[in-house]
Amino acid sequence: MSEPGWPDEGGDGARDDELERRRDEFDEMVADAVAAIPRPYSEQLGSVAILTEDEPASGQQAPGTLLFGLYQGVPRTAWGATNAAIPSKITIFRRAHELAFPDPVARAERVRSTVLHEVAHHLGIDDATLQRIEAGRHEHR
């Protein structure tokens, strides 16, 4: 059953083929965004799994909101004294991106932004700092 505002995603072979195509395209957008992360940041991603899901699991998303991505884990800045890597996970959600950005070019840009946002959390940058960085970036355009 689809949520209000979500296109139906099941039922027949043609829709299944279309859904698989959209999933593949989305996975490629995420892979391209990850591949574009510059060194030394990309070198710090060995302890984080980056995956895609169609939508958040129950309880991961506040009602009435769209969740584009989610970081789960311990940021690198909070690792213990031994610097032992604790597995972390970044999940990028396809349906929210498709709903909010129907244009593929705009969607790819938002996917890139979402990936960078969640990687920043892995690197220990909180939302307030990210907002200041983003505000400064817009001032210098």
What is the structure about, briefly put?
The chain is 44% helix and 11% strand.
Question: Explain this structure to me?
Answer:
The chain has 141 residues and is of the alpha+beta class. The protein has one domain (13-139): Zincin-like. The chain contains four helices and three strands, in the order H-E-E-E-H-H-H. It has helices spanning 13-35, 94-100, 104-122, 127-139; strands spanning 48-53, 69-72, 88-93. It has a three-stranded mixed β-sheet with strand order 1-3-2. Helix 1 (13-35) packs across helix 3. The protein starts with 12 loop residues before the first helix and ends with a helix. The model is unreliable at 1-6 (pLDDT under 50).
What sequence of helices (H) and strands (E) makes up the elements? HEEEHHH
- How many E strands? 3
Main sheet strand line-up: 1-3-2
Pairing-aware structural class of the strands and helices? Answer: alpha+beta
Q: How many discrete structural domains? A: 1
Q: Based on the structure given, which CATH architecture is correct?
A: 2-Layer Sandwich
Principal-axes geometry comes out as globular
- Biggest beta-sheet profile: 3 strands, mixed
Please give the share of residues in helix: 40-55%
Count of individual helical segments: 4
Here the CATH topology equals Zincin-like
Described by its quaternary structure, the protein is single chain
How large a portion of the residues is in β-strands, by DSSP E?
5-15%
Radius of gyration: 16 Å
Query: Cα distance, first to last residue?
Result: 43 Å
Low-confidence runs: 1-6
Mean pLDDT: 84
Task: Please report the first level of CATH classification, the CATH class.
Answer: Alpha Beta
